[in-house]
Specification:
- The complex is a heterodimer of chains A (307) and B (68).
- Chain A is of the alpha/beta class and 307 residues long.
- In chain A, 51% of the residues lie in helices and 11% in strands.
- In chain A, the strands form 3 sheets. Chain A has a 5-stranded parallel sheet, sandwiched between helices. Chain A has a two-stranded antiparallel sheet with strand order 1-2.
- Chain A is globular.
- Chain B has 68 residues and is mostly beta strands.
- Chain B is 10% helix and 38% strand.
- Chain B contains 1 helix and 5 strands.
- A 5-stranded mixed sheet of chain B has the order 2-1-5-3-4, with helices on one face.
- In chain B, a hairpin with a 4-residue loop joins strand 1 and strand 2.
- The N and C termini of chain B lie far apart (38 Å).
- The mean pLDDT of chain B is 92.
- The chains are: A alpha/beta (307), B mainly beta (68).
């Protein structure tokens, strides 16, 4: 049992190809795939100022590590990290510690913003106050703060560590909920229409599975935290993930097929929804949104009413 | 043979009895864990699921699940 490239002890059997790779060959394969995605989808320009949405977990630390490696070879490329502290007791404190240590080590400017400071409530408090879906609430508030502060920090692209598994799950979730318009915003480069108030989001790990990303983080010793968010259990995403992993085990290549067939239709979806789309300004906070009041302000109003 | 396993997701240590010649794949099947969702390590070194186990091996199983 040896690496198919160099005959050394393998650490992974690549999903979808059955190729075995050793630590060194896998690292090269992983980084090559990230850079290929960046090139193919023109995710990064030479003079971009990129902010990595950093949670301090294995995925976002891997992304920051790979992009920092790229930034050392491209002098005009600037890199910072933005961390949103949702306030998830027993979980986020640990990843914040890792994020701070990592940014200190690699001399990366880290900006931290919290739900508590911004909205007056931590996620834990919000969930106790009102019956909300944890993942939906967290996603709305996190995206809001990431976009707002990325824009304030004059960032040109916001990089997230979303991987092939995340994207395949999102496609199915949108399908199950009849949210095709939301799927039109997906892809390696997100968004439907360009608007200066929305910072384009890029996903350099788009074609890498979560197993590959975790393997990279482990081999590079980026973190010892392999725990997951306590709110995920029982969520729609959790159920879709289990369903997809079950299918992948029975029919290898399922997730890649979902992504590849989705990418065939994505240009049509974007074109279709671009004509219908008009970006407005939230009446309460003046942030860009699709309706008169943004999702974040709608949520905060709902909480105030229940106070 | 007896295999000592640490399952990180559940933060617990267990002992699993397996037939001689069993692999990591057999171990995961015995524990009803989908191999796609975890990394497996022996002596902190990552292994592939077709690797054979040895008696008294100390194994770590780490979850690869991300936030989404």
């Amino acid at each position: 049992m040896v690496c198919k490239k160099c005959a050394i002890k393998p650490v992974i059997i690549l999903p979808n190809s059955n190729v075995k790779l050793c630590s060194s060959c896998f690292t090269k394969y992983f980084e090559k795939k990230v850079y290929k995605t960046i090139r193919q989808y023109k995710l990064i320009d030479k003079k971009d100022r990129i902010a990595v949405a950093l949670s301090g977990g294995k995925d976002s630390l891997s992304l920051l590590y790979v992009l920092n490696k790229l930034a050392t070879t491209q002098k005009d490329l600037a890199l910072i990290a933005i961390l949103i502290d949702e306030g998830i007791h027993g979980y986020r404190e640990l990843t914040i510690k890792d994020a701070k240590a990592f940014c200190r080590k690699y001399k990366i400017d880290l900006k931290i913003y919290s739900y508590q400071q911004e909205f007056g409530y931590s996620l834990d408090k919000l969930l106790k106050k009102i019956n909300l879906n944890a993942c939906t609430t967290c996603g709305v508030l996190r995206r809001y703060l990431l976009n707002k502060y990325a824009r304030n920090l004059k960032v040109t692209k916001l990089a997230t560590a979303h991987n092939l598994d995340d994207e395949a799950q999102a496609i199915l979730m949108n399908l199950f909920r009849n949210n095709v318009e939301i799927s039109a915003r997906l892809g390696p480069l997100t968004g439907i229409v360009k608007d200066d108030r929305f910072i384009p989001r890029i996903k350099p790990f788009y074609f890498l599975t979560e197993k590959e990303t975790a393997t990279y983080a482990y081999l590079k010793k980026l973190t010892s935290q392999f725990s997951e968010c306590p709110n995920i259990t029982g969520s729609l995403r959790d159920n879709v993930r289990n369903l997809l992993n079950g299918f992948e085990e029975l029919y290898p290549g399922t997730k890649h097929s979902i992504i590849n067939s989705f990418l065939e239709t994505l240009p049509l979806l974007k074109k279709h929804y671009a004509t219908k789309k008009k970006i407005q300004e939230c009446q309460y906070c003046q942030e860009p949104c699709s309706g008169e009041i943004c999702k974040t302000c709608q949520l905060l109003e709902r909480i105030k009413r229940n106070h | 043979m007896k295999i000592n396993v640490f399952i990180e997701r559940e933060n617990k240590n267990i002992t699993v009895n397996l037939k001689e010649g069993s692999t990591f794949s057999d171990l995961l099947k015995a524990l009803k864990i989908n191999a796609i969702t975890v990394l497996t390590a022996r002596n902190n070194e990552l292994t592939t699921i077709d690797t054979k186990l040895k008696d008294k091996d100390k194994i770590k199983i780490l979850s690869v699940i991300s936030g989404g």
